[in-house]
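Researcher: Quick one. two chains, 661 residues in total.
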Amino acid sequence: MSLSETADRRDLGKVTDQNASRPTAGRHTIALFASELHLVFGRARTWVTLAVLAGVPMLVGVAIKLSGAEGGEGFIGQVAGNGFFLVVASLALSLPFFLPTAVTVVSGESLAGEASLGTLRTVLTAPAGRSRLLAAKMVALVVFCLVATMTIWLSGLIAGVVLFPIGDVVLLSGTTVSLADGLLRAFGIAILVALSLLGLAGIGLFVSSLTSTPLAAMAATFGAFIVFGILGAIPQIDEIHPWLLMYGWPSFADLLRDPPYWDAIIRNLLLQGGYLLVFYTAAWARLTSRDING
Amino acid sequence: MGAAKRSRRWLVPVTAVAVVAGAGAFGPMVADASPDLPGISAQELLARVQTAKVDGLSGTVTSSTDLGLPALPGMGSEATQFLDLLTGDHTARVAFAGPDKARVSVLDDMAERVLTTDGKTAWIYDSAKREATKVALPAHPAKPELAPEKQAYDPQAAAKKFLAAIDPSTKVEVSGTEKVAGRDAYKLRLVPKTDKTTVGSVTLAVDSKTWVPLQVTVMPRTGKDPAVQLGFSAVSFDVPPASAFAFTPPKGVKVTEEKLPSKVLGKQTPPITPKPGAPKPAKPSGDGPTVIGQGWDSVVVLRGQAPAGNGTLDQLLAQAPTVQGSWGSGKIVTTKMVSALITTDGRIFAGLVTPETLQEAATKAPR
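Model:
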């Protein structure tokens, strides 16, 4: 590295430290978070992604309606009898592939995208500070995950009401609850599914901090996701399976038991939190120790 | 110096890895610290266990079984519907209320299998297939014989089976204390004296207040991981209300009515000593199984079982070593817990024993 770069960075450090202790830091933070959200949701590709996710329940609903199939196993089999299950079935169907893909794209883009455009340099020299920049990026990712699953929830509900009869909900345990209770549980499922994606979002954020090529970050994140999937499919290493990213993903269905079975849900959230902690701090270490031009 | 300071930031994620891994690996250990309990002799503990009586309980049971059997795909037929409980990890919610009410809900991935009885009627509900089966039970049965599920998830029943096996062949000792499902428990360890069996030890965790066995652990003779661990992860000894055992078939569910003895209810599947050898579910076509030997080294003999069918099984047998003796010849399949000898004349010898013991049994067995 050249002398001038080092000097540059030292100066930056000073500026950042001074600004961090300023009383106006709070306003900067809010402005920063707002601008990050604007950045994520201002992109056309984000809206295309959300549109695709919204299309999942409609596609599934129309397919079931056209085939006229009654019965069948699992949540899908119940859709024809009660449109409510389109919400749950769509969330369950999107979780293994569509949602992780969306999260991969958005998280891979977050830091690498700015680096590729050269705007990261500007942002890094801005008074907000790198730690807060990273926090703002992460918050934007969390919001995206929630918006993505809520989109499916809402779209599934609309398609379910339009296409199918809707009524009281039969839980997995065989008990029947009111539609309102069911929708509340489905809402909880949407939140749980969003939280289940946070581990992957953390990985994406970290990978994104390593490179200035967004496509490379997305590919690497998706590659990691696939490796987790392959590891999870090898029975010989089942000792490590409970520690894999996706191990607890199906636990969202435990909300549909009577009473809900929380153990697996809590375990999954702790696991996601663990992944997030590790990769978020790694991204932080990378970003704060990073060369301004890198 | 700046660079050194910056590289020190990487200590943060490294610490995060250590904390997360540590919490994952050692967290449960700390929670399971041995409680302080007054001493008790093995005999006294045994007596207490055998007379333990609770009016009702509810809780969550987890089971983890690794008999070393290979996973055999294509065993999803009805005959093996409950056999899958004998492999892998399972969680079930259980509730009992004396003398004849019981409910077991096996929590599968995105599905649930419920089995409940209020003493007069039993219901079996499968949420994945959305089928319910209603079974009218005979009036006042001595003890309602429920599906294997009930036995498999009743630590008390499982423990009694092992206690019945206690004879001069077994060393019994109180091997310490532990916490199971948040309750203080004594550990009662049974060690086979014979070296013909693959069972290393069987440990019961017995609740120090109600004397109900809370957990059963079977260790193989070799290796550190339990072959079978079945026990409560949460338990309450409050008697569940009668409503907990009622079942109303939800709308849109196919209901079939059956009468005892039905194929599901009549099936006897020992929970802890599963029909070991049979990597193939045995349909009782030939003579019934006979048992050679007793105690730990007993061997089950099945006849008229031509090992045909299932491609995976054929493959498995093709790899198995061939053994010969005065009894004929056959293929021998061994895992860390279970051994099976499949003879060319269609007999199957199986047990929780060493391969040598199987051949000995084959020599003794009448043709």
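The mean pLDDT of chain A is 85.
Researcher: Thanks, that's what I needed.
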